[in-house]
Amino acid sequence: MCGIIGYCGPKPAAPILIEGLKRLEYRGYDSAGIAVGADGNLHVHKREGKLFRLRERVPEDLGGVWGIGHTRWATHGEVNDLNAHPHTDATNTIAVVHNGIIENFTSLKEKLQEEGYTFRTETDSEVIAHLIASLYDGDLETAVRQTVRLLKGTYGILAMHAAEPNVLVGARNGSPLVLGVGNDEMFMASDATALVAHTKQVVYIEDGELVKLTPKSYKTTDLRSREIDKKVDFISWELEEIEKGGFAHFMEKEILEQSESIKRAMQGRLDLEYGTGHLGGLNMANKELLEVERVKIIAAGTSLHAGMVAAYLLETVARIPAQAELASELRYRNPVVERNNIYFAVSQSGETADTLYAMRELKRKGARVLGICNVVGSTIPRESDGGVYIHSGPEIAVASTKAFTSQMTALYLFALIMARMRHMSLEHGLAFIKDLEQVPDLVARIVDRRGEIELLAKKYAHAGNFLFLGRGINYPVALEGALKLKEISYVHAEGYSAAEIKHGPIALINDDTPSFFVVPDNGLRDKVITNMKEVKARRGPVLALAVEGDREVAKIADDVFYVPPTHEYMYPFLMVVPFQLFAYYTAIELGRDVDQPRNLAKSVTVE
Ligand code: F6R
Fold first, then answer.
1. Ligand 1 centroid vs 254 CA: distance in angstroms?
2. Per-residue pLDDT, 540
3. Burial 39-75 (b: 16+ CB within 10 A, else e)
4. Distance between CA 358 and CA 363 in Å, rounded?
5. Which CATH class for the 2-235 domain?
6. Active-site option among 2, 109, 253, 373
7. 48, 433, 513, 521 — which has fewest CB within 10 A?
């Protein structure tokens, strides 16, 4: 979603701002803009569309050593140059960028209009610029503080004033802001990926905090002007991790990285002596874990699918009732929080509003909520009672891939811990670990044969609709296969339990609707084969992911991709990778923007 960057220091600001926005492109946006202060004026340039269009408009010799920039993902008002940020006051002396939604903007706007302020855009954000102007009395920090006290809703804000050179003021409530501390220069951004090219020292701004930057200093205060001591954190990843490094797309890089990222997610967390896992971040003693009677997982999108796989595993392996649910739905159904239940909030970004707000609601009701997140320092892990970082490294492509397999890895380890504390023997625990440890190599073997998937994608890319069908622990994998395909190729795809097609979706079957089946060698294999035959009998093209050696599948399906054999619980890892690759190559075949698909945002920070 929207991205924010700010700079004050000795260097020309515009190239730094545009480079920062480039790093934030992955979040998804539809317009971009910058404001740079020079010679007592603010120079504002904004433009609909991709960044290169903005770059065309920004003069080479703009000058100015401080400024703010923004990539906008439209919520209020259509996508056009005018609605892009930064927004300015009537005299063009104050510029503001804003992430989030101001819920009371209509009443604030009406009041300002009565006072004679004229609005130029349809956005909620413009109201912030006028409010600051109306409250400004020679000190930007004070005016921003007074302004945010009037706002209802969510915001990450960065503001500048033409008369206060090299000063930026930021404020946060619900939309992330992180400060980058450089040598005689300061940066501000909505996420650390925009900073890492300049500095690895960061300070995470919390809700209710305000920060004033100058090139050599930063001061953090609360809304009552009380100073807050902030700790400097260090970004642990390298710049190369957010660069394509020779790959055509981030998505390709991230799919191919999975054998490594899965290994990282289990690194240091396997106990080979006692055949169990070790997840210290849960902050729960074994005695407390033993008392857990039910596990609930809340998440959105791909993270929900990882949670669904894990819920299945928790019930079958650990024999603990477990359920994964859409965070957006849980939040508004007044959920019953029971003693001895624990909740996991699963989120790659750690910022997804639906998941975060559901987590807060659960916590208000007294629940213990643990996070399974990738982005270190993001809001969900900071607000949770404990949790696990999956250590996938930055995931830049909008479509989530490596986070999915690492989220599963972390939750598999949790299931192992819970199972070993209950009925699972040491011998079975060790066998589980052995199977899990083999996953990275098996994933590497699949990825090495990606050319086969590319051919399949070329053959089927022009089909009108797809069904993705799986059962049991692989049912969520089918959902994920469909989600991946529709997200990045815009081909209509639905995921179902293979058993469910006869209850409706089979009506869709025709020669332009391929069905892609997951056929592992488990107890449900024969049932899935029956479903494949049902589709075949109706002249639907059939594709299958099957296990090496399963010749019967090849007799029914038009095309088969074989995965190596593994334990039945490990198939979700092996089956999802071909689906990710299939979506990727289909999108390429159709000429789509793979890393930044239309309308989508990487981190969905609004409800
Ligand atoms: C799918 C995708 C989205 C996210 C969802 C949750 O490829 O990227 O469905 O999975 O928006 O995001 P996180 O995991 O950041 O909470």
1. 15
2. 95
3. eeebbbbbbbebbeebbeebeeebebbbbbbbbbbbe
4. 9
5. alpha beta
6. 2
7. 521
CB of 352 sitting under 6 A from ligand 1: yes
350 three-state secondary structure: coil
Outline which parts of the chain fall under CATH 3.40.50.10490. Answer: 245-444, 449-607
pLDDT digits (tens, 9 = 90+) for 36-84: 999 899 999 999 999 999 999 999 888 899 999 999 988 888 999 999 9
CATH superfamily of 245-444: Glucose-6-phosphate isomerase like protein; domain 1 (3.40.50.10490)
Catalytic residue (choose from 200, 212, 486, 602): 602
- CA–centroid distance, residue 515 to ligand 1 (Å): 24
pLDDT digits (tens, 9 = 90+) for 207-244: 999 999 999 999 999 999 999 999 999 988 888 888 88
Calculate how far, in angstroms, residue 464's C-alpha sits from the geometric centre of ligand 1: 25
The question of whether 602 is a catalytic residue gets the answer yes
Round to whole Å and give the CA distance between 327 and 307: 11
Q: What is the pLDDT of residue 184?
A: 96
Active site residue 2: yes
379 lines ligand 1 (CB under 6 A): no
Q: Is 406 in the pocket of ligand 1 (CB under 6 A)?
A: no
Identify the CA nearest to 33 among candidates 121, 141, 136: 121
Cβ 220 under 6 angstroms from ligand 1: no
Rounded distance between C-alpha atoms, residue 504 and residue 285, angstroms? 47
Question: What's the token pair of residue 22?
Answer: 């480039």
Mutate to test the pocket of ligand 1, among 303, 355, 372, 378 (most ligand atoms within 8 A of CB): 303
d(CA 514, CA 536): 10
